[in-house]
UniProtKB/TrEMBL annotation:
Keywords tagged on the record: ATP-binding, Nucleotide-binding, Plasmid, Transport
Listed name of the protein: Nickel/oligopeptide ABC transporter ATP-binding protein
Database matches in CDD domains: ABC_NikE_OppD_transporters
Originating species: Rhizobium gallicum bv. gallicum R602sp
Homology family: Belongs to the ABC transporter superfamily.
Amino acid sequence: MSDPLLKVESLTKHFPLSAGILKKNGPVVRAVEAVSFSVEAGETLCIVGESGCGKSTVARLLMRLMEPTDGRVLIEGTDIAGLKKHELRAFRRRMQMVFQDPYSSLNPRLTAAQIITEPVENFERLGRSQRQALAADLLQKVGLGPEIMHRLPSELSGGQRQRLGIARALSLKPSLIIADEAVSALDVSVQAQILNLLMDLQQQMGIAFVFISHDLGVVEHIGHRVAVMYLGRIVELATCEALFAKPVHPYTEALIAAAPVPDPTRARLEAPVEGEVPSPINPPTGCAFHPRCPLAVDRCRIDVPPLTSMADGRAVACHVRAPASANAQPDMVIAG
Ligand SMILES: Nc1ncnc2c1ncn2[C@@H]1O[C@H](COP(=O)(O)OP(=O)(O)OP(=O)(O)O)[C@@H](O)[C@H]1O
């Protein structure tokens, strides 16, 4: 069997709170703890969870914008940690990122055409006509007209700027795009247009997405599979269909219950979870969700539940709902 496009194994990131010599054994923010998943070519894996659960840190680790404390990121079987600078550059061509705020991530002094051709020009020299043709083609791909070509980001609407950010990401023909809250700053109607654009591009170009969002409505619209994170860990990983039809982890259940219901014929689930997300500096022992969990038993206060695959193919980390039996496979990642 061939390697998945992206494989993440036990990825962990702790941020030290102290500097200098105190750094080594001082307190840390446990932003990401032993996160494992894989993404197949052409697939959309969503990562969802409340603010501070570690979603953006996972994105930055995937792009190797920071070093992990532990764990590995493999692209088609190659560990990106072992790559030399020039090899990493070649890999980066295949992985691009789209950010939440297209305004701050686009150079305000460059025109739209310069912004979207810049990544290609980092690798090869383009003549004037080649640059024009590339810019026109990319603008067309994201539904923008050629009249945008000479405008600055400040002369564009939020939706147009995000389309420009996507065009820039597409310029190097990536096989994977990491979109971190890519539609959160946009109006709901513009959000839907951008999500549909991403889905069309996926169909046409076979791009895979890691789509990070706190918005379950967005995730349900765009995702093939969903990883639900709580305090740095994945607590449930399932197909979108299975997750929304029947969440298994009590936290997933609570998240879905708390989300606005776009379809009035769909019944709301039970009351959302009470209380605050605990601090990642001093997380609860055992299952980090136990202080807020209505189902918690003694074991939940002591042992961290492993992500265990269930009969229907999903993986859940819960001693009560997904007890690890003799033949279950902890930390197994379900394929798409
Ligand atoms: N550079 C850093 N130094 C110290 N702590 C950090 C750093 N970056 C992130 N954190 C902490 O790590 C935890 C996870 O942050 P992260 O931004 O990954 O969460 P998130 O789920 O993306 O949240 P949001 O949706 O609010 O962006 C948070 O407690 C955050 O404060």
